[in-house]
Amino acid sequence: MTTAVEVEEAQAIITAYGEAFAKAGAAAYHGPREKLAENIVRITLDFFEDPEWQPKLLQAVRTATASKEGAEPMRNLFSAQVFAQAGVALEEDPLSIDELAGKLSIKPIHINASAAQLWGVFLMRYVLGVEPIASASIEEIVTLLTPTVERYIVG
Q: DSSP secondary-structure letter at 33?
């Protein structure tokens, strides 16, 4: 069972991660379109590898998988929060997933699919430690994931 304190801690972690990711994502958005997917993959992996962020993200994922209440902060991140934060990072009003998808000229489900791809790696590599992805180099993972994420977010 997830305690209220664990949910509150997970919410704080997810909010801070969302803000930091939105800022980094906004910088990638303003870069060359042909590098957008690679930059998003690299930014995400940088957070996953960061010694300050990794234990916090592990805690948030463990809380999210322990109960419905624990899942709410992460569900909110992927369904609303990060898009609102992205809008602010882009120096606009907060965005919805539909509005961000419109800016990218893609369907909203493509944003979900790219997030699932990246967070699936987090689960396999850092939570479960499944080989060979757990010991693969960051460059191997970037090379592997970029074409898939590119297909989702660039077309």
A: G
Close Cβ partners of 143 (under 8 Å, ≥ 6 residues apart)? none
- What is the three-class DSSP state of 12? helix
Orientation of helix 108-122 relative to helix 138-153, angle to 10°? 170
Q: Measured between alpha carbons, how far is 30 from 89 in angstroms, rounded to an integer?
A: 11
Instruction: Please tell me whether the overall predicted TM-score, pTM, comes out greater than 0.85 for this model.
Output: yes
List the structure tokens of 38: 């690679």
Say which residues have a Cβ less than 8 Å from residue 87's Cβ, sequence separation at least 6.
93, 94, 95, 99, 100
Place of tokens 């965005």: 95
Domain range 4-153, CATH class: mainly alpha
**Backbone torsions φ then ψ of 22, nearest 5 degrees:** -60, -40
> What are the respective helix, strand and coil percentages of the chain, to the nearest 5?
80, 0, 20
Instruction: Answer whether residue 42 shows pLDDT above 90.
Output: yes
Residue 30: what residue type? H
Predicted confidence (pLDDT) per residue in 91-140, tens digit: 889 999 999 899 889 999 999 999 999 999 999 999 999 999 999 999 99
